[in-house]
């Protein structure tokens, strides 16, 4: 047993004795650690190879790539960043109700089938309105200037909201508006109650020149894009 003298004090240090079993356990532990590291390394190599294979397959599948021009990106960004006016709110409807003469004569049973451009009632063009105007509306030629969302409104509330909205749109000289009536998915019988009502109401309004079903990104069959008359007394060109 080793012994040391420190400041006149004798200290004995007991050295542990390693048995054969201890050496065997140490050897096994080192071997397992080595196997674990080798396994992790092989797994990493396999994942890397799989990633390279997937990348190669992807590149081969998409073929030759043409870089997008900076001008296209700039034009696209300008389009996406263009802000539309905020939709009319219920509070705004209440505030305006006292000053706007609400048209109570709009019939709920008016279906302008003879004036619709499609048997599915997806588009409408007022008699005397140039056909090309409706075609322009369908192609997105007109910029949407106002939006009205009728979701959650009862029939009478929606009718009044629509009248106020159209009155304000014409007063502000807005030509193209976006009206969301919904698809009726949340109604009791899942039937679009407002869908036909809104289309009938719009066809009764003199200020409405045409309307068509919105594009998918704007609500699809649950919304309409409406073109209004220009607010001027003299002859005008659409």
TrEMBL record:
One of its GO terms (molecular function) is endonuclease activity. The keyword Cell division does not apply. The keyword Nuclease applies. Keywords: Endonuclease, Hydrolase, Nuclease. Pfam families: Smr. SUPFAM superfamilies: SMR domain-like. Residues 148-229 form the Smr domain. Gene3D superfamilies: 3.30.1370.110. InterPro entries: Smr_dom, Smr_dom_sf. This is DNA endonuclease SmrA. It comes from Candidatus Pandoraea novymonadis.
């Amino acid at each position: 047993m080793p012994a040391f003298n420190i400041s006149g004090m004798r200290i004995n240090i007991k050295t542990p004795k390693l048995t054969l079993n201890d050496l065997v356990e140490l050897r096994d532990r080192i071997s397992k650690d080595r196997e674990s590291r080798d396994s992790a390394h092989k797994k990493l190599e396999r994942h890397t190879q799989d990633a390279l294979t997937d990348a190669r397959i992807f590149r081969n599948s998409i073929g030759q790539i043409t870089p997008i021009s900076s001008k296209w990106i700039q034009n696209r960004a300008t389009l996406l960043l263009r802000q539309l006016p905020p939709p009319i709110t219920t509070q705004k409807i209440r505030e305006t109700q006292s000053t706007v003469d609400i048209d109570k004569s709009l019939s709920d049973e008016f279906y302008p089938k003879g004036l619709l451009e499609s048997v599915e009632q997806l588009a409408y063009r007022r008699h005397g309105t140039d056909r090309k105007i409706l075609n322009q509306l369908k192609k997105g030629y007109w910029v949407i200037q106002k939006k009205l969302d009728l979701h959650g409104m009862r029939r009478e509330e929606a009718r009044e909201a629509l009248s106020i909205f159209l009155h304000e749109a014409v007063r502000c000289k807005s030509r193209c508006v976006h009206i969301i009536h919904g698809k009726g998915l949340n109604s009791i019988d899942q039937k679009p109650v407002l869908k036909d009502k809104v289309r009938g109401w719009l066809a009764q309004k003199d200020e409405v020149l045409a309307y068509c079903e919105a594009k998918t990104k704007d609500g699809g069959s649950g919304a309409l894009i409406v073109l209004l008359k220009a607010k001027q007394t003299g002859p005008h060109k659409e």
